[in-house]
Amino acid sequence: EAGVVQSPRYKIIEKKQPVAFWCNPISGHNTLYWYLQNLGQGPELLIRYENEEAVDDSQLPKDRFSAERLKGVDSTLKIQPAELGDSAVYLCASSRRDASYNEQFFGPGTRLTVL
Amino acid sequence: AQSVTQLDSQVPVFEEAPVELRCNYSSSVSVYLFWYVQYPNQGLQLLLKYLSGSTLVKGINGFEAEFNKSQTSFHLRKPSVHISDTAEYFCAVSGGSNYKLTFGKGTLLTVNP
């Protein structure tokens, strides 16, 4: 079974530029998460999708961040415009909604560097 | 609200020595507890989980953890570490029907020869 796929793995951009990250969850996983991981910190949830619906986006900075999961499978996270403080690793995870517990499977992440 | 405190940011040990990585949590509801490992430039991999039942949980790579409800702790242990165990370890909590995972800040385990 293939794991969570993310691309690109690394991205370097200049501040004020836009950037997008892509995630394909494990087949059959209808819950998808985007996390932000700053250097030396644990992941923090940005947004959670149940199928195509964003059910928890309370931590997503909506002035510059946006996300979509149009067909309830893969997802895109966008930042426009990027700021220096956005340099971090962006992790995607997925899980089964009907599981009795919340075991999330993580992708390798996208490391963003904003210059 | 939930929170996780990992008491040590870095733990250096020698190969074949035992190790304990400490984790304390707070939650107003019953919890599920997890330990994840993150190798350099990789995503998080689940080591073990506590859902209910036996308080001693065994995971992959020889790790185990003990849930202590009275002390609100979930410490991770391994009796003999290898160089390959060098990684960042994260403790996480999820409460009841809340699907949100709250992570600690992580503990960097460095195993020296």
Description:
The complex is a heterodimer of chains A (115) and B (113). In chain A, 0% of the residues lie in helices and 48% in strands. Chain A is an all-beta fold and 115 residues long. In chain A, a hairpin with a 6-residue loop joins strand 4 and strand 5. In chain B, the strands form 3 sheets. In chain B, strands 2, 5, 6, 10, 11 and 12 form a 6-stranded mixed sheet that branches. Chain B has a 4-stranded antiparallel sheet with strand order 3-9-8-7, with no helix packed on it. A two-stranded antiparallel sheet of chain B has the order 1-4. Chain B contains no helices and 12 strands. By secondary structure, chain B is mostly beta strands. Chain A binds chain B through residues 4, 6, 31, 40-45, 48, 56, 91, 93, 95, 100-109, 111, and chain B through 4, 9, 32, 34, 36, 41-46, 49, 51, 90, 92, 94, 99-101, 103-106.
Q: What's the helical proportion of residues of chain A? A: under 10%
Please write the string of helix (H) and strand (E) elements of chain A: EEEEEEEEEEE
Distance between the termini of chain A: 37 Å
Rg of chain B, alpha carbons: 13 Å
Q: Largest sheet of chain B at a glance?
A: 6 strands, mixed
Low-confidence stretches of chain A: none
Gyration radius of chain A, in Å: 13 Å
Largest interface: A-B, 25 and 23 residues
Mean pLDDT of chain A: 92
Shape of chain B: globular
Average the pLDDT over all residues of chain B and give the rounded result. Answer: 92
Overall geometry of chain A comes to globular
Q: In sequence order, what are the helices and strands of chain B, one letter per element?
A: EEEEEEEEEEEE
- For this structure, the quaternary state is heterodimer
